[in-house]
Amino acid sequence: MSFEDNRFPVPVREDMTTALRKSWADIGRPGTWWTGPERVAIAALARAERIQRKEPPWNRDRGEPGTPLPEKAIEAARKIGADPTHLDRDWAEATIAELGDAPYVELASVVVTTVAADAFCEAMGIEHETLPEPEVGEPTRERPDNMGDIGAWVPVQVIDWQRANVARALSLVPEGVRTFFRMVAAMYSGTASDFNEMVWDHRPMARPQVELLAARVSALNQCFY
Amino acid sequence: MLLRASSQAAGEEVDLSAAVEDAADGGVEDGAVLTAFAEAVVRATDDLDKARARALETLGPAKFVEAAATVGIFNGLVRVADSTGIPSDAMMLERTADVRGELGFNRWAGAKSSGVAEAPA
């Protein structure tokens, strides 16, 4: 089992460890467009690059990627993992032209899940979780309906959308949304009604404290959103 | 910006420049400890152990876990936004118009996705 309770220096809420365990296991499963081994390889590439984030990209020790992933997928896993400030539309369009929009979105979902879990481990002062064992099986290759253009680099859900845009950014791959936003609910937002309340009493920290951390992390990553 | 909205709801005045300045408290309880902790994790600085120990000592175990979780998940959330070029929500753009330019947000690469980019400084 991943994220075992005895790894943490202080107790962690059960709903948080449950979410982390489920999402971590998801990485090893066949996805919508990538196999389990490919998804674990994407996570490994993102982690290896992010560990070296203090070094400029041209100075990092990469060695052979050791994966049959397409070159653009290797580049995307590394870049999204370690250099989010260097992403732009031209690069995304060139990458999507080779990989396809939905495989690109799924790749991003694996990277963001890995990075969030790794950053949590670093904050807690524990070693990164061992990557999951990849499971055998074929991707489902199911593309959802009701996708459209709202100005993002990828199509997103456009019917009956009332929530923040970031929550539909990965909607071209619903499984990726479930994997990552399960962790978002447990580690930040709570339920939809919790999130809409500006005064939080369901978490130990006051909401302004949580939002100060959120704002500082966003600013350090130069994230405009 | 939810930092400002949540502070106003709590009857507090927040200094939003804390989002872009090192170890600033912004008028938020234990703010400097929180921002120093976030900076150490994101930048992987040599004083991460020290920042973590200070956070645990100041906040106590339960709040420390929340802080670690928030730092962790936002490292993922920023990448969701920046890897998909998702535009900012209209309401958020409207509510932050007065501070985005002042704090330099409009000069960040992601501002292009929301149609409010300014030339880099």
- Helix-strand string of chain A: HHHHHEEHHH
Quaternary structure of the protein: heterodimer
User: Could you tell me the mean pLDDT of chain A?
Assistant: 94
User: What order do the SSEs of chain B take from the amino end to the carboxyl end, as H and E?
Assistant: HHHHH
Give Rg of chain A in angstroms: 17 Å
Number of helices of chain B: 5
Alpha plus pi helix count of chain A: 8
Low-pLDDT runs of chain A? none
Order of the strands making up the biggest sheet of chain A: 1-2
Structure description:
The complex is a heterodimer of chains A (225) and B (121). Chain A has eight helices and two strands. Chain A has helices spanning 14-28, 36-51, 71-82, 89-99, 101-124, 174-189, 192-196, 207-220; strands at 147-148, 156-157. Chain B is 59% helix and 0% strand. Chain B contains five helices and no strands. With 121 residues, chain B is mainly alpha-helical. Chain B has helices at 2-9, 31-43, 48-59, 61-84, 90-103. At the A-B interface, helix 5, helix 6 and helix 8 of A face helix 1, helix 2, helix 3 and helix 4 of B.
Which secondary structure elements does this structure contain, and how are they paired or packed?
The complex is a heterodimer of chains A (225) and B (121).
Chain A (H helix, E strand, L loop, with lengths): L13 H15 L7 H16 L19 H12 L6 H11 L1 H24 L22 E2 L7 E2 L16 H16 L2 H5 L10 H14 L5
Antiparallel strand pairs in A: 1-2
Helix pairs in contact in A: 1-5, 1-6, 2-3, 2-5, 3-5, 4-5, 5-6
Chain B lengths: L1 H8 L21 H13 L4 H12 L1 H24 L5 H14 L18
Helix pairs in contact in B: 2-3, 2-4, 3-4
Short overview:
The complex is a heterodimer of chains A (225) and B (121). Chain A has 225 residues and is mainly alpha-helical.
Task: Fill in the keyword field for this structure.
A: 225 residues; mainly alpha; two-stranded antiparallel sheet; 50% helix; globular; B: 121 residues; 59% helix
